[in-house]
Amino acid sequence: MFESEFEKNLFALRKEKLAEIEKLGQAAYPNQYKATHTIGEIRSGWNETAAEALEAERTTVAIAGRIMAIRAQGKAGFATLQQGGERVQIYVRQDAVGEQGFALYKLLDLGDHIGATGYLFRTRTGELTIHVETITFLAKAMLAMPEKFHGLADMELRYRQRYVDLFANIESREVFVKRAKVLQALRKFFDERGYLEVETPMMQPLAGGAAARPFKTHHNALDMDLYLRIAPELYLKRLVVGGLDRVYEINRNFRNEGVSTQHNPEFTMLEFYQAYANYHDLMQLTEELIMYVARQVNGTTVVEFNGRTLDLAKWQRLTMREAIRHYWPAEAGGKPTMQVLDDAVKLQKQLHSAVEALEAAYGAVKDADDERHARLKTLLAAVNEVYYESLKNAPLGKMVYHLFEAMVEPNLFDPTIIYEYPTEVSPLSKAKPDDPAHVERFEFFIGGFEIGNAFSELNDPEEQKKRFEDQLAQRASGDDEAHQMDEDYVRALAYGLPPTGGEGIGVDRLTMLLTGCRSIRDVILFPLMRGKSAE
RNA sequence: GAGCUCGUAGCUCAGUAGGUAGAGCAACGCCCUUUUAAGGCGUGGGUCCUGGGUUCGAAUCCCAGCGAGCUCACCA
To answer: Whole-structure pTM over 0.90, yes or no?
Structure first.
């Protein structure tokens, strides 16, 4: 618990102070305090009330809070109390609280919790203040507070000791309050549209519904291996088979992947399914949903993200192939035609010349500080990989998809829906009726990363079985993220899944967008950290 | 997994032609009855992330490790 002699000594000193406080007739750890107002209510009620009016009213209040600043001046003093992310100042003078009360005041430390009764007034400098008549001791901070002006700045400490971050850095608290509002807004949106909120297994015998490596665990009594879910998808669709036409679930998914500013091994996903809807209906719904949540949370659809302004009410829609053509980099030579994007051999040929063009452009950039240098390097590596790897074993659809990720995704800052995905990378989506190579699927991107993924659900059990078998083949050839066979899911489909649209939305990423946080760790209360001192 | 940057007092940070550490806040003592990053006087507090190495001498230079941030890769 103690990180130093300093802390150990401080703790001992605070224990002595606690004993002194008890001698004054106060409980060291009382279990209740009846406040008449929260500090927020004091602020909203009297923030603008003039000094003369306060004097005339002489409103008496009882409040509670944590001491965030304390300024003693002989036989009087001030303290700033914080509660619910709001602060108010109290003024304590010996002739008002008595000798015992003032003795207690002098035993208070930064971080202590106290209750105070008194009347509202304004100081000489105009600050709304409580003129204290009684102080009640509530709890002691036995450890030192972070620096009062800068707060807790060390990112590692902020993540590991979020309990300190939350009271020391108001901005941090506000992010999580907003996150709660995001969740409320999402639920309200779906509740109002007749969706049923459900909870499906997070421990699954077979981790399906997405392309990812799962975490493995074990049930002792049943002697059974289980996987933490990578998606709720297959269970939710079983529910639609069961007649729950509109369902949604908000909960954690677990994927055994690396961490980054956009990935945490456990993350919160919203998934929803709607019978009788297709992906076009979901595009419409998605735009409405994002606008709705933004307005509920921020009161506006305009957000600042990563130094840029974007409007969540202004969307563009492109097919994946259109997007590749649209965002094709000038340095990669001529754009591929639609025909080229539909032909593996022609595409490989074009990528070959694109690699050459990119290499020439990259070689021409002399200054390593040039931002083009890094961009071209990344682009070249990505296209090169697509070109060579795809040449040997990947199907056309996979090649197109990877090309999209490399060339297009980082550019999708304004809200964009990308639709018509290759069938090969979409084992659970329904194919377009006139084009079996593509499925009725879209993903949407904001701020340069993917937020959600949706499609018309494949409901033909035979086709689903075939898709799973194709995935098994990819798995056999080394893709350990390819989907596994789920016989029970196929059986469920065989009972008849109505035409259904389904979608998943990354709640953490949506929250990042709405709070302006560039790292997913800033919107997760306790992000996964490497082990340090396992006490 | 790779590259870059960082790790000095409880907190925020200084400290390179290598000479065994400083400031502010916090703490402790004293003064101060409208202050607000309160102020004044005084005091205490550091395995300079860890382990090696170079050197007469390392917070500083080198190597390895641990942890963090960012970028990239993988993914959502």
So the answer is: yes
